[in-house]
Design the sequence.
């Protein structure tokens, strides 16, 4: 089986989509010597080609800045030209596009190569309402897929994502739920880089509370900041000797970065001393997960939650918002704790439970790791994708 993957994000780019695509690409080629994968993605600098092994090739196409267009969505012609020059229709059995900009390119290549197209939609689900498709471009993309029947199948990682698409009017039998998966052994192979702890000036007696989200409204790190303020006030009143350090892995260019810093100062959480707002390269994250006493994912909308799986593997107790796909992965009191989304008092209370009750924290760590090994491992994810790919290819062949 020869799969062409189209994605705007691929390592070393960070984020859930890049991680997922890499896990899938490597999983497919490890599953069978007969599988080959070509990835079309974007590079931050010049065009290059990378062979990761004989079965996997990654074509990286430079981003362009085009007036009135976001850089990721502009170089359609470059992507198309790369695919058409370097691949023949006989080199491809199936096209797999990730998210909306890639789906646009996938549709054109489907027409050119006459091959089936499967799309994975990673968008954080927002409850559907009539007329929203003329307000939100991504909903227009989905509507286009529905009206013109552009895809042979759609994949989403959670039930809540599927239900939103069904509410929009897409056929339920077109949509396949395949949860994301990670390789626990691969993640565990990353060694600690203790220099990052020194860079943070994190002392031995300080407990790290990690919030691995961007500073964006739907990720809701503001609730995490407010909860941090409540915990600090409570410990001061109790004359507690425990020292907490809070960390949000966001960047200065994130939309709500300045808001977080301003609110933190207003409630008595000093940036650089009590709380950090910093982004880290992926190679540093295993160290931070392992060092953290808790991992908080406060997002109000998530299509899945890749950071939850990573925390599970690194045995970091997870506290997540009781919303969207997060509540499908985190089972309250078993694999993690849930709090009412947007409620800093509830989040602070759940955090205190983790910090105070060592037996609870140990039980959550054990159950969470087992959950990844059984339900959210990359082997299981790849098997589900392979079955879907084979079914779509076989269906297309029978029609001919």
Sequence:
């Amino acid at each position: 089986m020869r799969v062409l993957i189209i994605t705007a994000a691929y390592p070393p780019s960070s984020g859930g989509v890049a991680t997922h695509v890499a896990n899938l690409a490597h999983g497919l080629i490890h599953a069978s010597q007969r599988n080959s994968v070509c990835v079309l993605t974007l590079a931050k600098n010049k065009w290059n080609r990378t062979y990761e092994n004989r079965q996997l090739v990654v074509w990286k196409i430079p981003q362009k800045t085009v007036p009135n267009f976001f850089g990721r969505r502009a170089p359609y012609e470059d992507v198309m030209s790369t695919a058409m020059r370097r691949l023949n229709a006989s080199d491809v059995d199936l096209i797999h596009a990730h998210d909306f900009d890639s789906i646009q390119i996938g549709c054109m290549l489907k027409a050119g190569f006459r091959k089936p197209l499967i799309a994975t939609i990673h968008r954080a689900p927002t409850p559907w309402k009539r007329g929203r498709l003329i307000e939100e471009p991504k909903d227009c993309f989905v509507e286009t897929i529905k009206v013109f029947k552009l895809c042979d199948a759609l994949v989403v990682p959670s039930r809540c994502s599927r239900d939103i698409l069904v509410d929009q009017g897409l056929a339920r039998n077109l949509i396949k739920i395949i949860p994301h998966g990670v390789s626990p052994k691969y993640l565990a192979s990353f060694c600690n880089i203790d220099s990052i702890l020194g860079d943070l000036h994190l002392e031995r007696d300080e407990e790290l509370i990690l919030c691995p989200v961007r500073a964006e409204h739907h990720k809701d790190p503001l609730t995490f900041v407010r909860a941090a303020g409540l915990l600090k006030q409570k410990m001061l009143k109790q004359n507690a000797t425990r020292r907490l350090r809070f960390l949000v892995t966001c960047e200065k260019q994130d939309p709500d970065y300045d808001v977080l810093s301003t609110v933190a100062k207003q409630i008595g959480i000093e940036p650089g001393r009590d709380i950090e707002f910093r982004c880290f390269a992926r190679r540093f994250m295993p160290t931070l997960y392992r060092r953290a006493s808790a991992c908080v994912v406060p997002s109000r909308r998530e299509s899945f939650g890749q950071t939850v799986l990573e925390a599970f593997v690194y045995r970091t107790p997870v506290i997540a918002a009781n919303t969207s796909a997060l509540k499908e992965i985190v089972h309250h009191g078993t694999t993690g704790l849930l709090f009412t989304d947007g409620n800093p008092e509830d989040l602070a209370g759940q955090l205190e439970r983790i910090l105070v009750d060592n037996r609870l924290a140990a039980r959550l760590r054990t159950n969470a790791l087992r959950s990844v090994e059984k339900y959210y491992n990359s082997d299981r994810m790849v098997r589900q994708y392979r079955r879907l790919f084979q079914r779509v290819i076989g269906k297309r062949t029978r029609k001919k």
In short: The longest helix spans residues 378-399.
